Q: What sequence folds into this?
């Protein structure tokens, strides 16, 4: 850290930054989600939205970020940045933050982001809120979020604080205590306010070619040498592993604790139903905790957030932690034996019945409909 950098000098910081992760010269889907969310925050603060992109020869992909809302993109090219290493990326990013001083800095909660963000926050002497699922600056927007997503009694609540400006500080909301409650955190004394955001949580804006053409590409001078790196990537080996692509799926069939009486059959029915729809199988946390399915299938606050066209919940009660990860689906169909199950509160169609009886009927109806075409 340079001697003249003071993370406590809040007035010196301005603009919203988003770390735009690339792999093999290709931007990650999370970049577009964060740029879209960053656009909202920048507008609420009345500042510019800037992307920061590191790599080797990545100029050609920078303009795409403008199409989702970036005003500027800071591009840093070097052969030493081609493959991610903690030392190289941390140095370049922290040097850039010290020079340009953004007040908000968002990073995707990918494997890379989860490694990079805490290292940068520690070096910059600022706070970091990890695995965020909701972000606000405007107080009115935050209060509206609480009305729709919490059980808090907001009547008569006082919002002003003698400790910090509630109207300008970033309000970062994340699951706490294993997902059993949501906590909102602010970083009032230091800048930038840093947050990692889960992939799939933020809504991506429609691409705007005019804004992509208008985005300003900036290539600041920077220093990076082999001696700055304690590690060196000698080879990149990719291994194929079949994982559930929940975030990109248009059709999801999710199973919950209701399959407990016959786990294998319940999962098999979900897989068959998903196959007929051209979708994938997801699960609630109890299914993952019981070891019936792998963690990449988990949906909810402590899993993945999804927005498919159709979400079919088989034997899922609908705890608030699970609903937070799927309630924005376009169409929700719930099957549960308990007519008082909370999942019915958000379902477009609810079937009160045994999933082992209902699922085969759904499969048969879909097959018949497809055959009739």
A:
């Amino acid at each position: 850290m340079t001697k003249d950098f003071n993370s406590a000098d809040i007035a010196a910081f301005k603009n919203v930054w988003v770390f735009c992760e690339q792999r093999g010269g290709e931007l990650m889907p999370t970049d577009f989600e964060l740029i879209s969310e960053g656009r909202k925050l920048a507008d609420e603060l009345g500042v510019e939205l800037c992307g920061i992109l590191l790599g080797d020869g990545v100029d050609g992909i920078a303009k795409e970020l403008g199409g989702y809302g970036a005003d500027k993109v800071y591009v840093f090219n070097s052969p030493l940045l081609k493959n991610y290493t903690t030392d190289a990326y941390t140095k370049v990013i922290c040097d850039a933050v010290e020079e340009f001083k953004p007040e908000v800095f968002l990073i995707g909660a990918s494997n890379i982001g989860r490694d990079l963000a805490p290292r940068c926050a520690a070096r910059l002497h600022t706070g970091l809120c990890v695995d965020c699922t909701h972000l606000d600056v405007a107080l009115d927007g935050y209060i509206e979020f609480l009305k729709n997503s919490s059980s808090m009694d907001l009547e008569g609540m006082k919002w002003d604080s003698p400790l910090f400006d509630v109207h300008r500080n970033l309000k970062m909301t994340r699951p706490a205590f294993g997902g059993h409650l949501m906590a909102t955190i602010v970083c009032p004394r230091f800048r930038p306010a840093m947050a990692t955001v889960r992939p799939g949580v933020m809504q991506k804006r429609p691409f705007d070619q005019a804004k992509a053409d208008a985005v300003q590409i900036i290539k600041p001078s920077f220093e990076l040498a082999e001696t700055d790196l304690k590690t060196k990537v000698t080879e990149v080996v990719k291994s194929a592993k079949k994982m559930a692509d929940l975030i990109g799926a248009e059709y999801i069939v999710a199973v919950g604790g209701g399959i407990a009486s016959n786990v294998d059959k319940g999962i098999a029915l979900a897989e068959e139903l998903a196959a007929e729809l051209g979708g994938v199988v997801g699960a609630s946390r109890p299914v993952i905790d019981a070891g019936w399915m792998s963690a990449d299938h988990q949906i909810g606050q402590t899993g993945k957030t999804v927005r498919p066209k159709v979400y079919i919940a088989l034997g899922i009660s609908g705890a608030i932690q699970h609903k937070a990860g799927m309630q924005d689906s376009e169409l929700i169909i719930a099957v549960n034996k308990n007519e008082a199950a909370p999942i019915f509160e958000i379902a477009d169609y609810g079937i009160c019945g045994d999933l082992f009886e209902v699922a085969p009927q759904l499969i048969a109806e879909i097959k018949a409909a497809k055959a009739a075409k």
